[in-house]
Amino acid sequence: MEGRPSSSELHHLTALLLLMPLLLTAGSADEPRLRPRSPEEFAVLGPAEPLVAVLGGDVELPCRTAPARSAENMQLRWFRSKFSEAVLIYEDRGEQPEELMAQYAGRTSLVTELLGQGQAAVLIRDVQASDDGPYSCFFREGEFYEEASLELKVAGVGSAPRVRITGPEEDGVRVECAASGWFPKPQVHWRGGGGAQFRAFSEAHAQDARGLFSVEAALVVRDRSVGNVTCSLHNPILGQEKAVAIFIPEPFFPKAPLWKLAFWVSLAALGLLLLGAGYCAHREHSTRLRARSDRETLLRAKEEDRRAKEAALTATDELQAQLDWRRSVYLAAWRKAQLYADWRQEKFQACE
User: Using CA atoms, how far apart are residues 112 and 126, in angstroms rounded to an integer?
Assistant: First the structure.
């Protein structure tokens, strides 16, 4: 019937269902990815905030199951960025040191006091700068596993700064500050006797074979009245600081050569002359502008007066023409009336 799967299709579907568990358990040999779902599932939780460890000290990297369940029979692994970079391996109820990274051999052990409650931690002894960075913890029971991420920040305070005066430079005194054995890179600050901050002239950092930082910083002090200069190194993770101050006597500052003094005096005099010349030129230019403006104003006034006179003459001529026209009209009418009166009189006399 149409819509019902054929026998061959049923065989294919059955084979696919049988292969599904194998597909789910397939993964990388370095980092397994077995994820069958079961009622026995759990989550693995690590610290929410980065852990801080001091160089040469000990630190624990804890992880736990949620909900809490015994991890005594689980496979546990702490590793770095790759699954094969093992820091500690716990399997078959014991530690397996054979696969550990060389740098952790003999330095790690499992803290098992709360293992029955699902809480475990790897103890790292004699913390080194190379221990700084991210970690992962891996808990596996049967075919199910989970992992969590955590971060370790390593910090160490090195030697106190060594401060010395190395000589005059650029009309000032060059002061150098050096220290070593810090982790991470220290922050260098220069302060004067009154607490004012100075900007470093130069600063260089280097790392030794153990990953520890050394720093060399220099400052050029030009203020003769500064007195004490302090070089301080600050560890940003631990918030700790080491500082050393040095006093700079005024005779250490170089005296300005006579040619430099003459140069600055001449430059100041030249500046005053240029300022005076500029003022005179500006004043003369302003006077010329005012004179030109006055002339233009007078010309405009004369032009307006001429136009007013022309307009008055034009109006007078028009008025005279109108008067002449009215006079001619009046005379014509008067003559016509006179002629009519004379004609009437003649006619009247004739009738008599």
Answer: 20
pLDDT tens digit string along 71-101? 999 999 999 999 999 999 999 999 999 999 9
Q: How far is CA 107 from CA 47, 87, 255, in A?
A: 21, 9, 60
Rounded (10°) CA dihedral 71, 73, 79, 82 = -120
Q: Give CA–CA dist 125/97, Å, rounded.
A: 15
Q: What is the 3-state secondary structure (H, E, C) of 166-201?
A: EEEECCEEEEEEEEEEEECCCEEEEEECCCCEECCC
Task: Give the sheet arrangement for strand 187-192, strand by strand.
Answer: 197-198, 187-192, 228-234, 241-247
Handedness of CA 273, 278, 279, 285 (dihedral sign): positive
Q: How many CB atoms lie within 10 A of CB 300?
A: 10
Residue type for position 101? M
CB under 8 A, 24+ apart: contacts of 30-38: 30/82, 30/83, 30/84, 31/82, 31/83, 31/84, 32/83, 32/145, 34/140, 34/143, 34/144, 34/145, 35/144, 36/143, 36/144, 38/144
Q: Which residues contact 12 (CB under 8 A, 6 or more apart)?
A: none
DSSP 101: -
Condensed to tens digits (0 to 9), the pLDDT of residues 149-169 reads: 999 999 999 999 999 998 887
CA distance 30 to 79: 12
DSSP state, residue 251: G
∠ at Cα 230 (226, 231), nearest 5°? 135
